[in-house]
Structures are given as C-alpha cells and as structure tokens.
What does this fold into?
Amino acid sequence: MAKVKSAYFCQSCGYESPKWLGKCPACQQWNTFVEEITEKKSSGVPDWKSDTSSIKPRVNKPQKVQEITYTEEQRLITPDKELNRVLGGGIVSGSLILIGGEPGIGKSTLMLQLALTLPKIKVLYVSGEESEQQIKLRAERITPHPLSECFILTETSTQNIFKQIEVLEPNIVVVDSIQTLHSAHIESTPGSVSQVRECTAELMRFAKESNTPVFLIGHITKDGMIAGPKILEHMVDTVLQFEGDRHHVYRILRAIKNRFGSSAELGIYEMQGNGLREVSNPSEILLSLREEALSGVTVSATMEGMRPILIETQALVSNSPYGTPQRSSTGFDTKRMNMLLAVLEKRCGFKLGAKDVFLNIAGGIRIEDPSIDLGLIAAIISSHEDMPISHKICFAAEVGLSGEIRAVTRIEQRIAEAEKLGFEQIFISKYNKKGIDFGKYSINIQPVSKVEEVFELLFG
Ligand code: TYD
Ligand code: MG
It folds into this structure.
C-alpha cells in the first residue's frame, strides 16, 4: 500500500504546489491554497468496474491509420437539433461532455429533457442536487410521456454510482453536478479541486473504456469560470457553456471546446413553462417588429457559428448629470465600446466625453462578433443626434482604430439573411465587395470605407 501523500492546491484555478503559498502564482489570488491528499492506493482494477462486471472494457491495440474504420453510427443523433449542431452532429460514443453555466440558467432542464426524449435509449440521470420527487415533478412538466428509459439515481459517491451503472448498463450517463460528487479515494470535500479532478478522471475512464457518453453538469464561479477550470477543460472532450440572462427567455448553448466538431457552433433555446424549446429562426425573434424608425436603434447582421443572426442594438447617449460620465453595456464588451467611442471622438469629432453612454443588445444575448461595430457606432450617433435610422437598413462591418471600415467573414450569408428578412439596404466594408455578385440580390448593398462616409450617407 502506498503511503498517503498530499500537496497544496489553489481552490480558484487548480495550481498545485508542494508547500503552502499565500498568493497563487498562476491566478494571482490570495489565500486560496488548501492541502489535499494526492496519492491513493492503487489496486489495478478500474474504479468503475468490479471483477464480476459484465461490461467489457475496450482493449486498445495499435492500428494502421488506413485500417481504422469510421462509421456514422458512432454518433447518436438526438431529437434536439440545436444540441446536435453544437456537438458537431450528435453525441459521439465514449465522449465526456461538460456543460457549464450559472445556477438557475437551465442546465438540469436541458439535460433532463435530453434524457427523457432520446427514443428507446437507456439513460441514467445521476443527481446530487435534487431529490427523486423534485426531478419527477420537473420531468412531468417537460414531458409526461418519456420516450426513453430514463432512470434517476440520487447519489454522490462515484463508487456507488459505478456499482449502479454495472447493474443497469445505461447507454448514456448524465451527472448533475460534478461539484456534488465525491470519490472515496480522496478525503477532501465535494466541490474541491482535487475531488472534482478525481471524479472527472474516474468518469473519463468509464466513458472511454465502456464507450458510453457521459454528460457532466458543472457550475460556474462568479468570475465566469467552471470551478477548477483548467483541469476540467483539458480532461473532457467537449466543453459547452449554457448562458443567457435569467430574466430573459433566450438561452444560448455555446461550444467552447470540441474534439469532435467546430467550437464556433451555437444553439439557441427559449425557456418555456414546459422546458426548453429550440429556436431555429433566431433573427425573426430577436428583431422587434418595428413599424417606424427610432433614434438609437440599429440592426446588425452578425454570425454566430455558422449561422447568420440579425440582431438589434440599442444605444442611449445623454448628458451626464455628474462629473464622471457613465459607460455601460449589456451583451457587448465594455472595453470595445470605449474603443469605439474613442474612434468617434478622435476621428469624427463627436464630443462624447461628457455624455453617459449605454448600449444594449436585444434579447439578453452576448455578441462577440466584431461585425456589430458599425451598427453600434451608427446607433450611438443616431441617439446622440436624435436622428432615427430607417428600420429597413442594417449593418455588417468591423471598425478599426483609425475609423476605417473593415471586412468581415461570410459576408454573402449575412447579406442573404438580411434580404430574407426584408431589409432594403445593408452597409458593408468596401474591402468585402470583391466577389459579391450584386445582381444576385435585390437588397441594396452599400460599400463604405470610412466612418465619416457612413454618417454622410445616413444623416446627410
Ligand atoms: P434549472 O434547470 O434548475 O437550472 P440549473 O440546473 O442550471 O441551475 O432551471 C431553473 C429555471 O428554469 C427555474 O428558474 C425554472 C425554469 N424552468 C422553466 O421556466 N420551465 C421549465 O419547464 C423548467 C423545468 C424550469
Ligand atoms: Mg441544476
């Protein structure tokens, strides 16, 4: 038997040190080191399997690349189209998928809904957070007649979970949440970095050796990181983030890392009284149906993953009643907003220094695509000058530090989406013009190269 060894771990980022430290050299946090046991006795038998188990572990041998067979059946296509898209075309067998998100955003709902609607599949839903009765109530709300064989287990010890898995032999395992699990091999409390790491490692081994997909739900800490972020992200195959504003109905499922598909993909859901509903035509929902133009409101053609989404941006510019003007944005990076304001001050001569500026992206959605820049700038000036911009105009271009209008990716898709939704004019960068067949579109495409030029065209 090996003797027990311990080390100190930063509870914030998982940094390991042989001695106690006041400040973490990795994440610069103070007072985060806790001693944890690192070595356990090893018996040679995988944690998830007893000797009498009927699940046969996969034995790996070297194989010639040419001889490795790859079939479509390796992916399980779920009834949830958004989830399939985000996963890169369905659930890959033997993959370990982490779903992160803030409390109350709908992670448990999403997973339970998946567990209930997979036809003829045996799912084990392990919950360390809620009782069977609570889960039953939620399941009734989502679907009164489950299509799958869904088993609920309220248990937090990984060893006990593996015992039940051996008996049940499920096709899919869902764990809600990784922070509630504990392994008997480690003495620290559930949720601590070493427990999370150990439990994930055990589940990883189970997933790979039995070829069963495992979903892990993980809570996100205040600063937006999945607890023990670095270790978990490296261990799992796929990291999905479930986000949105709890007070809005829309939720976004984003792939942050995906070994089996693009990490730029995104799924949109609407939270309803009976669970989450897929949103397949996001633009139509995210645009408010305005009959008339309002000042400070513009529409941008952004891309999220492979999908174009038209989204409304709102700006409010007002005189600052106090000495220091307020700058705040919802759904958009405040630093980038400040940069755009500086461009307007310096390059275009607008005096915004003594103004409060508020930005808002409709629907409680966060946009990272820089193609929203031009639309935002137009919204700010529209509010500042109190001159409305026609609601038949939309924008798709990035703005550079010298006020130049820069090209964006997949411009044709954006133009097509704008045309589909009935817009009459789209402003794009002149550097995006090449290769576009203008005759193909009935929408008026307006190439521009400088911010001033845009204002000239819009406000005369
Ligand atoms: P939940 O899945 O418990 O969130 P998480 O697991 O991420 O903490 O979702 C909680 C919220 O979702 C809660 O405020 C109630 C709401 N909800 C609905 O609006 N409709 C539903 O059908 C369900 C099941 C939940
Ligand atoms: Mg939950």
